[in-house]
Amino acid sequence: MNTYEIITDKIIKLLEQEIVPWRLPWSAAGLPRNLVSKKNYRGINLFLLSAVKYASPYWLTFKQVNQLGGSVRKGEHGEVIVFWKVDQVAESATGADMEKVEADKRRRFVLRYFRVWNLEQCDLPQAVLDKLPKIETHHHDPIEAAERIVREMPNAPVIQYGGSKAFYSPLTDRITLPSPELFTSIDEFYATLDHELLHSSGHRSRLNRDTLTEAAPFGSPAYVGEELVAEMGAAFLCAEAGISPTVIDNQAAYIQGWLAKLRGDKRLVVVAAAQAQRAADYILSRHDCDA
Questions:
Q1: Are residues 172 and 60 part of one domain?
Q2: Could you tell me the CA-to-CA distances from 184 to 56, 180, 188, 191 in Å, in that order?
């Protein structure tokens, strides 16, 4: 089983339990991070580690636990996360022109995985625990934080209010939403707006994402891929603003659609998560982010 299959099967098992990993009650302060490097996990790793039962946001590799003088408790199982390994691949030279070998070298990105353990699964020296970084907390108004994300998006699309549907039109580069007062909660309003902002990030004048710019009939792999990008990216933005992504009424239908496509395409969820992270970074004007 390759890495894509391992990760996709894990997501499928969560969905079969009606756990949607990108719809979680996050706060920006509680995002999973590595205890040693202090870096936040991103992309699909963020979803994988947020979907487990532990309250602590801190994670370590087996090697890091040992280096800190601790140990993983007996019987504890680590969580799988992934990383991209860069391999240099030389193309075959043509004819007698062997000098082209160096010129034809190219980079190949290969998906690999390893395991990490939550702080709650480990026994660490008290001296290490006493020096744990304090979790940053935010006491800002989450509505203002959400407004700031919308207001500061670079090259933002036009947003108009009216009607009873929420959608983004690539043709006019325009988001249309019902009036905010028609939503059952302000959180639902911002989660919906964030979803449409994620779609707009794929416009040709922004990230030029092929799942948005190319023809994608309803239910096609490209259509589902774009919806996954928008759903997961909206979860990133909601977490940034301290807003919990709300559970939509037709979540059951979404789950069935995701399951069918994920079973048929083992790369879909990993690629979509990476695109969602890139789109959220674009909206937030972040160019140098934690890995």
A1: no
A2: 32, 9, 7, 12
Is position 154 within any domain? Answer: yes
Would you tell me how many other CB atoms lie within 10 Å of the CB of residue 68?
Answer: 17
- To the nearest whole number, what is the mean pLDDT of the chain? 84
Q: What's the CATH number where 261 sits?
A: 1.10.10
- Cβ atoms of residues 33 and 58 within 8 Å: yes
> Percentage of residues in the chain with pLDDT exceeding 70?
82
Structural domain that includes position 255: 142-283
Q: What are phi and psi of 282, to 5 degrees?
A: -65, -50
pTM for this prediction? 0.77
CA angle 220, 223, 229 (to 5 degrees): 140
- Extract the tokens encoding 254: 């979404």
Contact 119/59 with Cβ under 8 angstroms?
yes
Question: Does 156 lie in the same domain as 96?
Answer: no
Token code pair at residue 124? 């660490």
Report the pLDDT value the prediction gives residue 279, as an integer from 0 to 100.
97
Residue 103 confidence (pLDDT): 45
Pick the last residue of a domain from 83, 110, 130: 130
DSSP letter string, 127-144: HHHHTPPPPP---S-HHH
Instruction: Kindly tell me if the per-residue pLDDT of 176 is higher than 90.
Output: yes
Q: Reply yes or no on whether the pLDDT at 247 is more than 50.
A: no
The DSSP call for residue 108 is: E
